[in-house]
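re: the backbone from monday

yeah here it is again, tokenized this time
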């Protein structure tokens, strides 16, 4: 009797992995802080927010303003309502809207073809609040490309996003699943590591993330997603949509180099 096939869940981070906004997210967050608390522009100065969940960013900013985590939690609903309202407007501004990162659409097309054969499911694993994720991805026509997701406002600890994503992906179905987390920061790698799952690092995030990402030793490291074959290989998939067991390897590229 043949073994039950393993379903591979490919879980994408958003910012710096699928797309880059040109300041829309930061601008909207700072405007929301001004709307709700009256804190002036620049409230995010000095906050390293790449790879953080949106609620964790809010907690950091509150701490910098002498407020504690309970204060941040108490005001989160109002702040994120203001944030998503501001984000929607900021994403309409071509100057701050940003772009989809290289190779993303091709990678999603290839995964879709595999998903159609039943071996792969494609979802989101992101620190963005759900509505923020929807707005950012919808601005580029990508929201509908993901079958499921786990979002920053649904957990207290980022690593808890992975089991939440798995539950949603499998939706009560039996059968083994393995996960691949695709992200631009060491925090994305840490989520995969916390659950002994595979991490694919992609160097398209903020420049300051690169050295930390490399040091986190993802199972594979790609300059960007332009080479679809290399990306599928990094995920442990092949063109026939059959998950492969292969030794971990690292694909390192020099800074500023082309696609692998
Ligand atoms: Mg990111």
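seq for it, each position gets an aa:
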């Amino acid at each position: 009797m043949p073994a039950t096939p393993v379903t591979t869940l490919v879980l994408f981070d958003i910012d710096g992995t699928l797309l880059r906004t040109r300041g829309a997210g930061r601008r909207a967050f700072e405007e929301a802080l001004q709307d709700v608390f009256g804190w002036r522009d620049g409230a995010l100065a000095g906050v390293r927010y790449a790879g953080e969940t949106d609620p964790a960013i809010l907690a950091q900013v509150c701490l910098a303003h002498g407020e504690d985590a309970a204060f941040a939690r108490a005001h989160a609903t109002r702040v994120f309502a203001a944030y998503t309202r501001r984000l929607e407007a900021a994403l309409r501004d071509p100057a701050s809207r940003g772009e989809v990162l290289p190779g993303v659409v091709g990678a999603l097309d290839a995964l879709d073809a595999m998903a159609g054969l039943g071996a792969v499911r494609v979802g989101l694993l992101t620190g963005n609040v759900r509505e923020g994720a929807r707005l950012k991805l919808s601005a580029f026509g990508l929201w509908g490309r993901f079958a499921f997701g786990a979002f920053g406002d649904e957990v207290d600890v980022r690593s808890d996003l992975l089991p939440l994503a798995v539950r949603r992906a499998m939706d009560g179905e039996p059968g083994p699943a393995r996960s691949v987390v695709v992200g631009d920061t060491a925090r994305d790698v840490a989520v995969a590591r916390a659950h002994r799952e595979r991490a694919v690092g992609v160097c398209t995030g903020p420049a300051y993330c690169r050295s930390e990402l490399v040091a986190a030793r993802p199972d594979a490291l790609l300059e960007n997603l332009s080479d679809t074959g290399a990306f599928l290989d990094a995920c442990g998939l092949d063109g026939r949509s059959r998950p492969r067991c292969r030794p971990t390897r690292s694909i390192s590229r020099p800074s500023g180099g082309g696609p692998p």
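The CA atoms of residues 47 and 60 lie 7 Å apart. Strands lie at 7-12, 19-20, 99-100, 120-125, 148-150, 177-183, 198-202, 220-222.
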